[in-house]
Write a structure and sequence with these properties.
The complex is a heterotrimer of chains A (170), B (321) and C (407). By secondary structure, chain A is mainly alpha-helical. In chain A, 75% of the residues lie in helices and 0% in strands. Chain B is mostly helical. Chain B contains eleven helices and no strands. Classes of the chains: A mainly alpha (170), B mainly alpha (321), C alpha+beta (407).
């Protein structure tokens, strides 16, 4: 294997492993912490794909804001009881069977696909010459302006809804 | 010399100089605030107390490291380390003078913002892992504060990035060769300054460690060198934020280019500006009372974030015209 | 939060429903901002206080019980230890009460000196109050500025009677010693520069927007509530009730100098702060007027059955020595029987002494009405519904000292 392949193998492997570690933690705060490590690895993978802007945003938004909110909620909830819950539940056989079937399904489908080199106008060279922020900005605000604005509107609605639900009296 | 060795040497020098800086900036603070309060500050250890930081460091190293029996130990151990690593890591992209930065990356600003958001984990986790109510409240306050002010800080820097057309810190400094961004981005500068105070948990936004309310906030249960790590992280964070302000608004390493001043190396100008900012931190601490938690949040969301957004729109309009 | 080892349960068996519960925070008795050893148990919902319960008694030394086994003279040093920040005011309050019990009239010069030192005590108390209150809210520079002036007054106390904090300067029927002219002159010099210093404190915080936001509209006590809770002193006057024992009672020479009762309007922390800042100026002006008017004359009352004889006579004369010995060991033997309550205005509010006298040299019962105790009992009602940070500001604004509260 070449160096980039090793690099990819490390990050992909760690992401899989960390996901498993994260969901098996009994203590939700530990789970969130492993998720933080997981997010850092995802950011590494983005860097590997020459998407440095996405890597930074991954850390700022997911690790810096969303995960902190998770922590915030978990810390406010008194989850002492969760610590006594059995890790393996009654129906684990069924769950494991479904999991194995799904994994097999994914592996067979993915193995059949050959990943082609990028064909669009945004090749790595094109992005490098302009910088990824500028390229991304241009695409977002010209080609995909409408979907972008719709997405921001949806988010705004969600925020307003959350405020209305949380604050009975504004 | 292979490149990796050169980088290693640079890292070694920068980190060591920063650690020395942290020690002496504490001394600087005690002296400055002391003189502002009609007293002298440290005077006993060495000439005018010059060896005080070293004595303090030795004391912290040899103090007993107390860990509460009900603390979540692994998290309790790593929390201060996360904070210090995030603060020191930010130094990697800061250009101290023309052509000198350990890593000259295109997303310099974003990298610093990302690391400062990771640094907030240190405070939150320390508050939670100590298993003490004062620490816990400090951690909660900190998480809310950091999220709110990170947004304001990020938005205030967007104007700068628009002016410079780049997120690379060296490019931003070069873009200011004609005029500093201080005047055209005065609103952003103000928002950034306030957000930097809040991000580094300094007065008047030092709520996570408000000593009269929460004893010492998230650091209540920490002692010895672990407490020292928090301390170092706070002062290293102040350095990083001041450096970022200098780079984004005050023209980084550039100085006046006439007469003898033109021969002064860039690092001198850079450090002079950084220490002016650090002095500002101390000045504010000696002058202002502390905000209340809800007032702090209100200020962040209702004043700073709208101001920063308005600044972005305004900058955009000016660029278009 | 450790992993609770022990019996493991299925997720379905554990009660998955979440219940809301307040966070109980025990603030004190060791806490940097509870002004001594006050303990507050706060039930918090977020940072809002749902319930606040003060616990007092960590500094209880049994002053009232001790007093039953001391003669009247020996109780004076005990009163130092009530409000140790303004011990002079307690001494005066006690002496005024005992003199009323015995029916002694003190000489005019003594009244003047007592007024002067009493107002000095008020200034030291308010200086310490301002220092700690500002520090609690986070303004640390005010703290050291206030201590600069407090130090000067304490130096003057030291020159006057040898002690800085626990002075025990007044005596029943008079004073320990007379003041000299140099001392009065130096005090006068201090009063000349002091109003400028008060202005300095005001420039530090009075126009500061953070300070205003932290204090205005916070910890509001209505005038009616303030009276019903029995608040007194600046805490009562801040709510707009013009009640000052110095105006209505007859101790000291407060009727012979020009001064006014400082009152607030809204009853919030800011108004209580303003009242005390104004009292700085009033006290300062009272001291100046007293120094200008002070007459010459004796300092001990002419009541040999109750007051100690002069020291030089005790050292040279047998009769006086015996007299001194009896008064010190047994106390005054001709104290009238009966019950009496006398209150004086100390810096923190109304300090009252209630005596049950059985005619012996010792009080049968002495009860102290301390303003701090009453103020602490009003604390829950002020704090509930406000934020944790406001508790600190409230504790500061009602000005308590636990030595006096717990007695």
């Amino acid at each position: 294997m070449t160096a980039p392949q090793w690099f990819f193998a490390y990050f992909a492997g760690m992401i899989t492993l960390l996901s498993v570690v994260m969901i098996t933690r009994r203590n939700p705060v530990h789970g969130v912490l492993w998720m933080l490590v997981l997010f850092v690895h995802i950011a590494g993978l983005y860097l590997f794909l020459n998407a440095e802007f996405l890597a930074a945003i991954q850390i700022i938004v997911y690790a810096g804001a969303i995960l902190v909110l998770f922590l915030f909620v978990i810390m406010l909830l008194n989850l002492k009881k969760e610590l006594t819950v059995r890790k393996v539940q009654k129906h684990w056989v069924l769950g494991a069977a479904i999991g194995v079937i799904f994994a097999l399904f994914v592996v067979t489908v993915v193995a059949g696909i050959t990943v082609l080199p990028p064909l669009g106008e945004y090749s790595i060279e094109a992005i490098r010459s302009e910088g990824s922020i500028m390229t991304l900005g241009k695409v977002m605000y010209t080609k995909y302006l409408l979907p972008f604005e719709i997405a921001s509107l949806v988010l705004l609605v969600a925020i307003v809804g959350a405020v209305v639900l949380a604050k009975k009296r504004i | 010399m292979p490149e990796w060795l050169w980088i290693f040497i640079k890292v070694f020098i920068v980190v060591n100089v920063l650690m020395l800086h942290v020690a002496y900036v504490v001394y600087f603070e005690r002296k400055v605030i002391g003189h502002m309060q009609a007293r002298l500050g440290p005077m006993r250890v060495g000439w005018h107390g010059l060896l005080q930081p070293i004595a303090d460091g030795i004391k912290l190293f040899f103090k007993e490291d107390i860990i509460p029996s009900n603390a979540d130990k692994p998290i309790f151990y790593i929390a201060p380390i996360i904070g210090l690593l995030a603060a020191i890591g930010s130094l990697a992209v800061i250009p101290m003078w023309e052509g000198f930065s350990i890593a000259d990356i295109n997303i310099g600003i974003l990298y610093i913002l990302a690391l400062s958001s990771v640094g907030s984990y240190s405070v939150i986790l320390a508050g939670w892992a100590s298993n003490s109510k004062y620490s816990f409240l400090g951690g909660l306050r900190s998480s809310a504060q950091v999220i709110s002010y990170e947004i304001a800080m990020g938005l205030s820097l967007v104007g700068v990035m628009m002016m410079a057309g780049s997120a690379n810190l060296s490019d931003i400094v070069r873009a200011q060769s004609e005029q500093w961004f201080l005047l055209p981005q005065i609103v952003a500068f103000f928002v950034f300054l306030m957000a930097a105070l809040a991000e580094t948990n300094r007065a008047p936004f030092d709520l996570p460690e408000a000593e009269t309310e929460l004893v010492a906030g998230y650091a209540t249960e920490y002692s010895g060198i672990r407490f020292g790590l928090f301390f170092m992280a706070e002062y290293a964070g102040m350095f990083v934020m001041s450096a970022l302000a200098v780079i984004c608004f005050l023209g980084g390493w550039s100085g006046p280019d006439f007469w003898i001043f033109a021969r002064v190396p860039g690092i001198v100008w850079f450090l002079l500006k950084v220490y002016a900012f650090i002095f500002f931190y101390f000045w504010v601490r000696a002058t202002l009372p502390r905000y209340r938690y809800d007032q702090l949040m209100g200020l962040g969301w209702k004043l700073f974030i709208p101001l920063a957004l308005a600044n972005i729109i305004f900058t955009g309009l000016i660029k278009l015209l | 939060m450790e992993n609770i080892s022990g019996k493991e349960v299925d997720a379905a068996d554990s009660d998955a429903r979440l219940s809301e519960k307040e966070l109980t925070l025990s603030m004190g008795p060791q806490h940097p901002a509870t002004h001594g050893v006050l303990r507050l148990v706060l039930d918090l919902s977020g940072e809002t206080i749902v319930k606040c319960t003060p616990y007092v008694g960590y500094l209880h030394r049994g002053v009232e019980k001790l007093a039953e086994n001391r003669n009247y003279m020996q109780i004076i040093p005990l009163t130092d230890r009530l409000d140790y920040i303004a011990s002079m005011a307690n001494n005066i309050g006690y002496c005024v009460a005992v003199e009323k019990l015995f029916g002694i009239k003190v000489p005019e010069r003594t009244e003047y000196i007592r007024t002067i030192v009493g107002e000095m005590a008020r200034i030291t108390n308010h200086l310490l109050w301002l220092a700690t209150h500002a520090l609690d809210i986070g303004a640390m520079t005010v703290f050291l500025y206030c201590f600069r002036e407090r130090e000067k007054i304490l130096d003057l106390f030291e020159r006057l009677c040898g002690a800085r904090l626990t002075v025990s300067y007044p005596r029943i029927g008079g004073l320990k010693n007379d003041v000299d002219d140099q001392w009065l002159e130096d005090l006068y010099k201090f009063t000349e520069e002091f109003p400028g210093r008060v202005e300095q404190y005001e420039t530090l915080i009075d126009k500061n927007r953070i300070w205003l936001r932290r204090t205005k509209g916070v910890g509001v006590i209505s005038a009616e509530d303030a009276i019903n809770w029995g608040l007194s002193g600046p805490a009562l006057r801040g709510s707009g009730v013009s009640y000052d024992i110095r105006k209505i009672s007859s101790y000291g020479v407060y009727d012979k100098v020009k001064w006014q009762v400082c009152i607030g309007k809204n009853g919030d922390i800011y108004d209580r702060y303003r009242v005390r800042m104004d009292e700085f100026r009033e006290s300062n002006s009272i001291i100046r007027q007293c120094i200008e008017k002070i007459p010459k004359g004796p300092i001990m009352a002419d009541a040999p059955k109750f007051t100690l004889p002069a020291k030089d006579k005790v050292l040279s004369d047998m009769e006086h020595l015996i007299h001194h010995f009896v008064l010190i060991t047994k106390g005054p033997q001709t104290a009238p029987e009966g019950e009496l309550y006398v209150a004086t205005e100390v810096p923190k509010g109304e300090l009252g002494f209630f005596f049950v006298s059985d005619g012996t040299g010792r009080p049968y019962r002495m009860r102290i009405r301390s303003p701090s105790f009453v103020h602490i009992s009003a604390l829950p009602a002020i704090c509930e519904g406000e934020l944790v940070a406001d508790v600190i500001a409230n504790i500061g604004s009602i000005d308590i000292v636990l030595g006096e509260c717990d007695r």
